[in-house]
Amino acid sequence: MREVFKPASFFSPLGRDERGTILVQFTISLIAILGFIGLALDGARVFLLHNDLQDLADAAALAGAASLDGTANALTNADAAARSLSANDPTNKKPQWWNASSVAILPGTQGVQFFDTLVNLEASPPRPTNDPKSARYVTVTTGVWGVAPTFLVAVGAVSNTSVQASAVAEAITANCKPQSMMLCNPYEPSDGSSTGDTSNFGCAYLGCRPTRGQMFVFSTTGNTGNYTPGVFSLIDPPGSSGSDGDTEHYLSQQIVNACQREGTSPAQGQKTNATQIGINVRFDQPSNQRGVLETAAPIVIEGIARSPGNCKTTVVTPPNFNQANYPETCNSTQYSCPLPFDVSFSSTGGGSTHIGTGLSDANLLAALNAYWQNHHGGSWPTDPTTGLPKTRYQAYLDEANAAGDSGNWQTENVEPHNPTCLPVDGSGAARRIISVAIVDCAYWGVIGNRVNNIPINTYANFFVTNPTDQQGNIYTEYVETHQINEKDSGLYRIVHLVK
């Protein structure tokens, strides 16, 4: 019998057959998966581009902030540093592999602004400043980069995505070495061309001033508030009330407990007694003042005779003692002769600072020989490196280390060379070193004794040659100059991102 075709019976098994449905589901899922992958790739391109632009903005802001030193060219240098980094990115962080389909609408650094406080930081734009002396913050905004996404363009969702980044960096001066005194740079140009960087004080090139071995006599008297080049002033310590006790304590310090962020501020008043108390403890003279660091240097020759067992010094002045007849006076072993002064001084800054002629004067060498003969016998030592007479500080280091004939003291019965009243400071010979902030006072407009938060870019170390006298004069010899960010200077410019 012939079988009759029945449509219902033919399609019925097909309706129950599920073996091919996975292809349909896979096709639909694949479209969705590819869509998500496309979105992820396009999103990643935008994310990576933004990250690179943010890295660029951060680096440019930090580079710009590093130049905010308060000098006349600070803003120009900071702007150039920020823009140069974006144009010649040494870290190769500019957009790379996705750049082929990207369009740089405004490449590089679009804007660089400077401001002095964080007030209105969230505003657009932040409050700017054009004063290089007060600019502490820099904000950098990159150009706008356009990314042409692949998937979003294909589906007609979007044709281009714009990406931009910005950063704010701050410059901080951290002073980790106490500078209790300030000297208006005596070599600051007087023709109005000063830039405030004090670069001509203690520099290395030929003709630079001062030279090692020159004496500087700092006086707290005679300053009428006119801070012209050469004027000397004490500095109020951070958080000071301006009292003499605060100044005495600060002058006696060798190290600081914590680094300070504040700039230099001239002290109020002349404080003659403060210099005697704060400086002379280094010469084994007790002060009996609370807070003063009561320690002495290892060598404390003051050029006096002491009453045996009495820590209050009794000054015995050699007959007719002055610089002119120093050699003849020191020939007698009856006296302990002090380190001699420079033969002649030039006065600057209204008499508040005197600068000596240093070792270039032959008459000084005769006086130095007399000092050495008085205490040790023989002649003043010579620097083997240069073949020139040693500076007072170099000879003092010899005495502290008992080098050569400096270990032989002929004047012990007249004046012991070791401290007898105070313990020796742990810093050793450095106890007779004081650090003085160097400031271009004309540039900064330092007037009177008003507080001036002046950033320090330079300080100089001076060797205290003799005790401070009753007039408050501080007798020193120039040793060396240190610049900010110099290794082991204790003076640093720190930059960090704020936003």
What does this entry look like structurally?
- There is one protein chain.
- The chain is of the alpha+beta class.
- The chain has 2 domains: 20-174, no CATH class; 177-490, no CATH class.
- Helix content is 25%, strand content 17%.
- It is built from 10 helices and 15 strands.
- The strands form 3 sheets. It has an 8-stranded mixed sheet with strand order 9-7-12-13-14-8-11-10.
- The longest helix has 45 residues, at 21-65.
- Kindly estimate the percentage of residues that lie in beta strands according to DSSP: 15-25%
> What order do the strands of the largest sheet run in, or round the barrel if closed?
9-7-12-13-14-8-11-10
- Which residue ranges are poorly predicted, with pLDDT under 50 across at least 5 consecutive positions? 88-93, 95-108
Mean pLDDT rating? 78
Number of strands: 15
What secondary-structure arrangement, pairings included, does this model have?
Layout: H1 7-16, H2 21-65, H3 74-87, E1 102-104, E2 109-115, E3 137-142, E4 145-147, H4 151-154, E5 161-163, E6 166-175, E7 181-184, E8 215-218, E9 232-234, H5 244-252, H6 272-280, H7 326-330, E10 345-348, E11 353-356, H8 362-375, H9 392-400, E12 433-439, H10 441-444, E13 458-466, E14 474-483, E15 491-497
Parallel strand pairs: 7-12
Antiparallel strand pairs: 1-4, 2-3, 3-6, 4-5, 6-15, 7-9, 8-11, 8-14, 10-11, 12-13, 13-14
